[in-house]
Amino acid sequence: MDYELAIGDRAYSSWSLRGWLLFDAFGIPCRTRRAQLYTDEFPALLADFAPARTVPALRLPEGPVIADSLAIAEELSSRHPGAGIWPTEPGARAIARTLAAEMHSGFGALRNHCPMNLRIAYTGCPLPDPVLADLRRLETIWDWARAQTRSTGPWLCGAYSAADVFFAPVATRIAGYDLPVGPAAAAYVAAHLAHPSFRRWRAMGLVDGPDQPNYGRDWPTRPWPVPAPLPARAVADGPAENAACPYSGRPVTHFLEMEGRRFGFCNAFCRDKTVADPAVWPTFMALWLGDSGSEAR
């Protein structure tokens, strides 16, 4: 039996993003089950993950369910000590755990005022003092972590770790709401937006269900602040260069076109997540480049 992870809408469920990154970013396979928030399918999904009341919820291969993102991080770290979920150096590991714990329980003003929404970016967002205080606190602890761990790369405690996983949805808020931060914090946000696992999650979030009105705000919009993806578009028919979906291996029924070439997929979701950001899907890019040896995603 594999790991089985319950998640909500990818565009909006920030805790689901954290749970999923703990698998994808560290190369741990899992089977994902998604339900749309604010519908009957969401409590029905959670009923299969009792006693969980929220997402992410993880069913372990031997059957028990754990339903807290910090617990998931710790359990995966115990089971996969070579994956790099926490830093190996004890001091850096302690700092990473401190950061994750503060994110887990804090920054309520920022979370409530600027809910995660990966489908839109705003500008001119009015910021109450508690939100500004949360932003300053983020910069303080991010700078502290880098100084303490002597991290010279883009991440807080050396290599990418669970500490960065826990701040990924905050990075999307800073980017998506055009929030004021200094150059070091802005560079950290940019690193999150460029991370392949985050880009895969956002590509899926753009196409995995209808917009959720609860997460919309009546503020001016702007383009999402990342480089434009490779140009691709959905098309009605083939013929495709491939007979089997690059993700599932099943026969193709849905098609995209990229630079005049057509490729097939087994369903609309497989196609549409690829159209959203083709370059972040290794098996599609292997097909595109004519290399069949890349790992599936």
TrEMBL record:
First and last residue of the signal peptide? none
| Pfam families cross-referenced by the UniProt entry | GST_N_2 (PF13409)
Annotated GST N-terminal domain residues: 3-84
Q: Which domain of life is it from?
A: Bacteria
- Gene3D superfamilies, from UniProt? 1.20.1050.10, Glutaredoxin
Name of the protein this chain belongs to: Glutathione S-transferase N-terminal domain-containing protein
Q: Give the source species.
A: Halodurantibacterium flavum
The root-end lineage is: Bacteria, Pseudomonadati, Pseudomonadota, Alphaproteobacteria, Rhodobacterales
